[in-house]
Amino acid sequence: MKELRFPEHFLWGAATAAYQIEGAARDDGRAPSIWDTFSRTPGKVYQGHTGDVACDHYYRYADDVALMAELGLRAYRFSVAWPRIQPDGTGPANPRGLDFYDRLTDTLLDRGIDPIVTLYHWDLPQALGDRGGWTNRDTAEHFATYATAVYARLGDRIDVWTTLNEPWCSAYLGYANGVHAPGERDAAAAFTAVHHLLLGHGLAARALRAAGARSVGVTLNPADVRPADPQSAADAAAVRLVDGLHNRIFLDPLLAGGYPDDVREHVSRIVEPTFIRDGDEKLIAAPIDLLGINYYAPSYVAGRPDGAGNDAYPGTEGAVHFLPPAGPLTDMGWMIEPAGLTRLLERIAADYPGVPLLITENGAAFPDKAGADSPDGPAQVIDTDRIAYLDGHLRAAHEAISRGVDLRGYLVWSFLDNFEWAEGYRKRFGIVHVDYLTQRRTPKASARWYQEVISRNGL
Ligand code: FCB
Question: One GO molecular function term (predicted)?
């Protein structure tokens, strides 16, 4: 295969999220989040798994950072757990919660690894969940206060700040199809949450800037939505609808000044959008410095009056048929289509020019087969399918760069195997294997491969 070089200063790293790895769920003043509650609700998470212990990263962070350094990572994207900082979601910051991220930040910097912070990766304080969560406009205001508190402690050492991770998931999986916390099934609530999440981003971004933050951004999981039949006008209309609900409902307010008319009209058929107030769109559209892109798989749709639609896309019933994933799949049942990443990056760069992009997540779950097992963990994990996935997607990213996309870096999901939300611990995304009984870490073959990629700055 062709040898590829990435641009100088291309940022190589890995990503995780607080609830998925930290554990220590009741320590140092942390209060429950909506994910603690959800994972304790029977039937919501695979085999009742919770984040109580997870990868015990809260106590093992120093060893974990040492391993990151050994692998040559230049950047590490982690999220801050809001319920550690403000256990009730409001009020004064809990210094012990901040201390943890302070130690983590210093340890990363000592090892020459750039910290990239996500302020919200889904673990809303339950106290705010009790007051309606993201359906309550106040949550957006509280989010900005929380962001300010984290910045006040870490802003002197952290350059890159991102507000939300994948608000699509928070809003639609949390409030429309109920697969994620808080597990509601109410389309009107989901659209309300979309707006309040965007508003939360806008308020937090403004607060971070006022406090002096140099780089402020947000991470989306834009979808590469494809027509089942590229010649079909009905399929093109289905693409437009799903693209509106998944992509443009976030991208347009953030990067093009406001909600698109077709999306507004669609939403209005489900809920009167009185939650959009004067000035909101202007605030949300304030320029950002970086757009984080999480990409895993494309989705294929057809326009059909008998289409069942999809609960995660309110209003698509009777209009859209979502094709079942086909071809090689990951352990999540997701399609493997690297070309989708090239298309997505090019499309965003073309439709929303001027904002640098960073791949904040990309990776795959596979049922890793351990090599010769020792009592405290596998001696080796030869995950060739993950290497192939990462290799394909890095080539796809490189292709986008060669076509002119301003892509600044790539963060693999994930550094460690971890709590994969509704799937619990049974899906393994890490380049480092975690034995959950002993907490032993074993770099997989993909980790060694990635180490080599980073050191050569290419493939
Ligand atoms: C993304 C999430 C991340 C992880 C990956 C597999 O949607 O941001 O936490 O679960 O999917």
Answer: beta-glucosidase activity
CB 99 within 8 A of CB 157: no
418 CA: nearest ligand 1 atom: 10
Cα dihedral 350, 353, 357, 363, rounded to 10, equals -20
One-letter amino acid for residue 279 of the chain: G
Residue 47 marked ligand-binding: no
Beta-bridge partners for 299:
225
Pocket test for ligand 1, best of 35, 77, 164, 166 (most atoms within 8 A of CB): 166
Note whether 297 and 223 are within 8 A (CB).
Answer: no
Q: What is the pTM of this model?
A: 0.98
Which residues, in sequence order, are CB contacts of 302 under 8 Å at separation 6+?
A: 227, 228, 229, 232, 234, 235, 238, 320, 321, 323
CA atoms of 178 and 171, how far apart (whole Å): 10
Residue 113: the pLDDT is: 98
Task: Give the atom of ligand 1 at the shortest distance from the alpha carbon of 17.
Answer: 9
Burial class (CB within 10 angstroms; exposed 0-12, middle 13-18, buried 19+) of 304: middle
Residue 353 has φ and ψ, to the nearest 5°, of -70, 155
Ligand 1 centre from 29 Cα, in Å? Answer: 26
For residue 378, what pLDDT is reported?
Answer: 72
* Residue 1: per-residue pLDDT: 74
CATH number of 11-456: 3.20.20.80
Residues 302/319, Cβ–Cβ less than 8 Å = no
Give the pLDDT confidence of 443-453 residue by residue, as tens digits. Answer: 999 999 999 99
Q: 3-state SS of 340-352?
A: HHHHHHHHHHHHC
CB 372 within 8 A of CB 379: yes
* Cα torsion through 189, 149, 361, 197, rounded to 10: 20
Cα angle at 253 between 252 and 259, to 5 degrees? 75
By C-alpha distance, which of 158, 162, 192 is closest to 175?
192
Domain boundaries, the chain: 11-456
With vertex at residue 154, the alpha carbon angle to CA 174 and CA 112, rounded to the nearest 5 degrees, is 100
Residues 6+ apart with CB under 8 A from 231: none
Whether 19 and 81 have beta carbons less than 8 Å apart is answered as: yes
Q: How far is the C-alpha of 421 from the C-alpha of 423, rounded, in Å?
A: 5
Q: With contact defined as beta carbons under 8 Å apart, do 18 and 123 qualify?
A: yes
Give the pair of three-digit tokens for residue 421: 């939300």
Asked if 166 is an active-site residue, the reply is yes
**Which amino acid, residue 198?**
L
Does the annotation count 361 as an active-site position?
yes
Strands (E), 91-174: 114-120, 160-165
From residue 111, alpha-carbon distances to 241, 406, 410 in Å are 46, 27, 19
